[in-house]
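User: When convenient, might I ask for sequence and structure tokens for a protein?

AI:
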Amino acid sequence: MNAESKTGYAPIHGMQLYYEIYGQGKPMVLLHGGITAFEGFGTNIDALAKSRQVIAVHLQGHGNTADIDRPYRFEALADDVAALVAYLKLGKIDLVGYSFGGGVALQTAIRHPEVVDHLVVISSVMAQTGFYPEGLATFAEMSKNAPMLADSVKKSPLATMYPKTNWETSFKKMGELASTPFDWSAQVKALKLPTLLVFADADAVRAEHIVEFYKALGGAQRDAGLDGSMRSMARLAILPGTTHYDIIASPSLAVVIGEFLKR
């Protein structure tokens, strides 16, 4: 990230929620994946900030936002995002979330539709069963393996960037969250806002679930017609040559999001 940013902490629900603001224009709130922080978006932040005011957030227990005595819950984290929008007086925002952050973004749109204008969900699911079985098995073992996983992160650049993070606690909480069954398909079907789903062509999300997710938003129901007038508000993008773990660093991501928001 090369663009100049403004940083701050917002007093939200007993936390000091860290954020950075890039660029100018209509506000776009950017939510990162689990364990990591928004730096994973790489040059996509600068690309998006060319036409938007990008507010990149460190969610509870991630990056510069210290943890509190509260489990990770998509619903609670969504309430944090809505409270940040109010604190910064952003009005109605475009909301972009990746993986864990995609679940938070989706719950924000479900719980606080009055603050979300456009929604972009990247490599995330509307039901826990959307992940491949091997992923679900990893989630089920994550809390138990938290000490080992924490030791591996302590040797990585991430630990150097955020030395105050309790990695073992983070993995335990993330494991508990990821191994808790959920199904938001009914709430997704009730959403009334333009939504873009973005997935890798070698994602951790099952291809069948990607189609189910898109259909729940009103997509893939019929031929859109010669002029495209019969298509739904939803959009679906599959980025070739990417995986669940590197999709947010793909330069194509900012391009796809930018094209969606132009519409």
User: Anything to note?
Assistant: The two ends are 26 Å apart (CA to CA). The first strand starts at residue 5 and ends at 12.
